Amino acid sequence: MVSSLTIVFSVITLLLSLIFPIALAIYFCRKHKAPATSVLFGALTFFVFQLVLRIPLLQILSPIYPGKQPVAEFGWWKLFLYSLFLAVTAALFEEGGRVIVYKIFLKKKGDWKNAVAFGIGHGGFEAISIVGISYINNLILMLMINLGFLSASGNAEDPISQAVRLMIDTPSYLFLLAGIERFFTIILHVGFSLLVVYGMSSKKYIYILYAFLGHFILNFPLAFFQRIAGGVYISMAYIGLLAALSYYWITRVSPHMFSKFYSGEE
Question: How far apart are CA 105 and CA 43, in angstroms?
Answer without folding.
Answer: 13
